[in-house]
Amino acid sequence: MSSDTGPLVPAPGRMGVDFEQRVDFGRLRDYRLARARAALDASELGAMLVFDINNIRYITSTMIGEWARDKMARYALLPRDAEPILWDFGSAAKHHQLYAPWLRPENSRAGMLGLRGSVAPEAGLFDRAAREIKGMLQDAGVAHLPVGVDVVEPPMLFALQRLGLDVRDGQQVMLDARQIKSADEIALLSTAAAMVDGTYQTIVDALKPGIRENEVVALANKRLYDMGSDDVEAINAVSGERCSPHPHNFTDRIIRPGDQVYFDIIQSFNGYRTCYYRTFAVGRSTPAQRDAYKRAREWIDIAIATVKPGVGTDEIARLWPQAKDFGFEDEMSAFGLQFGHGLGLALHERPIISRLNSLENPVELKAGMVFALETYCPASDGYSAARIEEEIVVTEDGPRVITLFPAEELFVANPY
């Protein structure tokens, strides 16, 4: 089913050209900021203060490198009816003044907090930042309203509260904004998936007895960065007796004849991410492996066929087996195996689809959502397993699959 669900979603070339309409980054920036403003206006908040670099990128269209993802050093403020203000790491602020003209120069500022506690709160940087933020909220006339925060270091939260600011959960507002993708976002997601299509060809060409899981991961990383990936977040490579239960990692295990092996490639192009599993047999396959693959394929196909605007995520989750039916004691233990999750600037956006959360708290599917659906089936041999994942665009006409490497049946790499 992965290649017969309607017209292809465009995956244009990565260069800008004059002879084709490709991704319009100006339009992308305008769309994202407008979505964030609309979500803010629909909330009780007077402003959004964001530290999550995906939210910073969504609001300001700035990024300085993956190394900053876990440093909590960058932050941005979006008050109602005002322009976004960005505080960035040292000289990056000066760089934005030169090369990011969509931000007012005075709104691109150098900022520094604690680098996750490495600079102690006693240094006063959190208090200084909180005073500056409150002053801007006062200037915007929204200091009397709650301020939404997505993720925050406790000393920053306490500094804001000491100044009398009413701090609320703002991550939900930002996720509301980000859940419907524009045509430009979908093109970037499709291009990212196309890069993984090609990477899987590199993998199956190399997938022979004697190669190690980590060597395949190294090949995949090189291929992706050669094609223009800006971040290879993670690659799972799981083979042989490691397949069941799923360990969600890779090792230096030597791949052997007849192994079942599955990979998950998580990477991004211009910030837009993939989550893309494929399962292979090496040289030959067994009846147990083929049977597990067939069941995993059936589970994902019935889920894909259900996708359309108006469907609840509970309707999809109910199609999948209960945890106890494939060897787990409860849904928490099996979480992430029969699973769906939104894709965008983050790996896990809305909607999240599973029997753990969706049956009692369903989300309605809407056109413009993009998410991955993934299934997992242990084999009857006690150690092999099949893992399949497809990325789906929800359209008014139903699902569009953008992960195109062959997966209709178990792919035998380099058959004997």
TrEMBL record:
Protein name per Swiss-Prot or TrEMBL: Xaa-Pro dipeptidase
Boundaries of every Peptidase M24 domain copy: 189-396
InterPro entries recorded: Creatin/AminoP/Spt16_N, Creatinase/aminopeptidase-like, Pept_M24, Peptidase_M24B
Segments forming a coiled coil: none
CDD domains per UniProt: APP_MetAP
Superkingdom, natural source: Bacteria
Species this protein is from: Streptosporangium subroseum
Pfam families reported for this sequence: Peptidase_M24 (PF00557)
